[in-house]
Design brief:
This protein has 1 helix and 30 strands. By secondary structure, it is mainly β.
């Protein structure tokens, strides 16, 4: 499984790398989990056995292979040191970014594709949402499964965790229900019922508001103190495939199958549902694939990004709405693109079974 060289506009030297070679090389650090028959990290793999990290990539861009099917989701750890990827093959891959992008473990408990995932803000837990109708909670210090949340009657398309405030998990199901879970007691404590599949969910920055999007093209904002619907946003004309809130809690962006990314002012003093402030165009959706293409903010709020059905990653300047990068390298739909929370890196997951991680180019369009 030798990776192909991503064809970015900027000419760079790419490091030869395959996850299989690295897994074979580092087999002594891995053990078999008898229950799941998957590779998991040994708890004794601690900092004293790791080389000192150099906080730059071994190459400006690296293409990571190892997944046996379409990669639907990719997330940086809150520290920015690790990357997790998952998709159709039901497995979650862990990558050590600043240690040669080594594949340091594979987690497996799901019985169907992994459709979304998110970390807790302290980086100690990872939640993975699956088409097997469950959400799995992982201990990312021991790399072992902790709890499987059950209750959805169809695919779990999306999940998110609060960044501060109460420790909550939200999950959106294809049956139309949005479930709130208390992470501390590991139980569901509320459900918002709906008639249409929920395809995207996001908490605001303080965990007091919840945004959901779905097949009915509507974004709903729920007040979590009152546990009631506060307002709706009706600016898309097709399915909502991704939602993301800026770190300062000022803006929400939504990606729609109508090929628009829309930004909304979600500050509490703004009244009513006329909150749309910007529209970004250029990225595409494939109406036959109907992939849930996600979008995200950069930590400082300067840029936003999304994947696209035309195989590119799109990056816009949020304030000017100017498209500043259109990054290639993938050979199929890019399902998700995310910025590193700490450094000038971006990662993308694609239907071509690979993940590309690289530095954001300085030269803009």
């Amino acid at each position: 499984m030798k990776p192909s060289v991503p064809k970015y506009k900027e000419e760079t030297k790419f490091k030869s790398y395959t996850s299989t070679e690295l897994l074979n090389k580092h087999t002594p650090h891995l053990i078999k989990n008898k229950q799941s028959n998957e590779l998991v990290l040994r708890n004794s793999l601690q900092m004293e056995t790791e080389p000192i990290k150099q906080y730059s990539l071994a190459s400006p861009h690296m293409q990571l292979s190892g997944h046996q099917g379409e990669v639907y989701c990719v997330k940086f750890s809150p520290s920015g040191d690790y990357l997790v990827t998952a998709g159709f093959d039901k497995r979650i891959f862990l990558w050590d970014i600043y240690n040669n992008c080594q594949n340091i473990g594979i987690l497996g408990q799901h019985k169907n594709a992994v459709l979304d995932m998110n970390w807790t803000s302290d980086g100690t837990r990872l939640f993975t949402a699956s088409a097997d109708k469950t959400i799995q909670m992982w201990d990312m210090e021991t790399y072992l499964p902790l709890k499987k949340f059950k209750g959805h009657t169809s695919y779990v398309n999306a999940c998110d965790t609060t960044k501060r405030g109460s420790e909550l998990l939200v999950s959106g199901g294809d049956e139309g229900n949005t479930k709130l879970w208390d992470i501390r007691i590991r139980k569901q404590y509320h459900q918002f019922e709906g008639k249409f599949p929920i395809t995207a969910v996001s908490f605001n920055e303080n965990g007091e508001k919840l945004f959901t999007g779905g097949l009915d093209n509507i974004i709903r904002c729920y007040d979590l103190k009152k546990l009631e619907l506060e307002y709706t946003l009706n600016n898309h004309s097709d399915t909502i495939t991704g939602l993301s809130v800026s770190n300062d809690g000022t803006y929400l962006i939504s990606n729609g199958a109508d090929m628009k990314i829309i930004a909304y002012d979600i500050r509490s003093f703004v009244s009513g549902n006329n909150r749309m402030v910007r529209v970004f165009t250029g990225a595409t959706h494939n109406q036959s694939e109907k992939n849930l293409i996600r979008c995200s903010f950069k930590a400082d709020g300067q840029y936003i990004c999304t994947g696209s059905a035309d195989k590119y990653v799109y990056i816009w300047d949020f304030n000017t709405r100017k498209l500043i990068h259109r990054l290639g390298g993938h050979t199929a739909t890019v399902n998700e693109a995310v910025f590193s929370p700490k450094n000038n890196l971006i990662a993308s997951a694609s239907g071509d079974k690979t993940v590309i991680i690289g530095e954001i180019p300085e030269v803009t369009l």
